[in-house]
Design brief:
The chain has 142 residues and is mostly helical. The chain has 6 helices and 2 strands; from the N terminus they run αααβααβα. Helix 1 runs antiparallel to helix 2 and helix 4 crosses helix 5.
Length: 142
């Protein structure tokens, strides 16, 4: 698939998931990565920026985004397996191709409006990260 085709497919799948979650009438819906990681990845793979911006407009704005900040090299160290997609669709998928491509993806995150984002240092011990995330969620529930 082309980056544009993948964007349309991913947008459809995410929209469907969000619609189903909204039907549940829950007060809180947690979504892992929402569309951010996919759109940044597709931008790094050559997707049209205007198409990405148009698709972004279709999604409801989250009340809160919690970004777990972790350097790409630390993320690579934690992984046991590297997917073809995470390595930029590179035929040789290993730590080097992961590092190279994910560094490019990280630069694409700058296109997002981060005004309602809260950051947590994911290099902290797992329980500290969890505590910080829970505190952020608690302080933002109205």
């Amino acid at each position: 698939l082309t980056p544009g085709s993948r964007l349309l497919f991913l947008s459809h799948a995410i929209t469907y998931s969000i619609d189903k979650a909204m039907e549940s009438n829950n007060h809180l819906i947690l979504v892992d990565s929402y569309w951010y990681k996919y759109f940044a990845t597709e931008k790094a793979l050559g997707a049209n920026e205007n198409m990405i911006k148009a698709l972004i407009e279709l999604f409801p704005e989250p009340d809160l985004v919690i970004e777990l900040q972790l350097p790409v090299n630390k993320a690579a160290q934690r992984k046991k397996h590297f997917s073809h997609y995470e390595c930029g669709l590179n035929d040789l998928c290993n730590q080097d191709s992961f590092l190279s491509f994910q560094s490019k993806v990280k630069n694409e995150w700058e296109m997002f409006d981060r005004s309602n984002w809260k950051s947590v240092d994911a290099q902290l011990p797992e329980l500290e990260v969890l505590e910080q995330v829970m505190e952020i969620i608690k302080s933002n529930i109205s």
